[in-house]
Amino acid sequence: MRKFYSMVTALLVGFALTALTGCGVDDSRLSILKVYNWADYIDEDLLSEFEEWYLEQTGEEVKVVYQLFDINEIMLAKIERGKEDFDVVCPSEYIIERMLRNDLLLPINKDFGTTPNYLGNISPYIHRVFDKIDGHGKDANDYAVGYMWGTTGFLYNPKYVTREEVSSWSALWNPKFSKKLLIKDAFRDVYCPLLIYAKQQELASGAMSLDSLMYDSSDASIALVEGLLKRAKPHVAGWEADFGKEIMTKEKAWLNLSWSGDAVWAIDEAEAVGVELDYVVPDEGSVVWFDGWVIPKYAKNTKAAAYFINFMCKPENAIRNMDAIGYVSVIATPEVMDYMSESAVESGCEEPLDVRYFFGEDADSVVINPAMYPDVSVINRCGMMHDSGARTANLLEMWSRVKGDNLNSGMVIFILLFFGCLFVLGVVRKVRRRRQRNRRW
Question: Alpha-carbon distance 103 to 99, whole Å?
Answer without folding.
Answer: 6
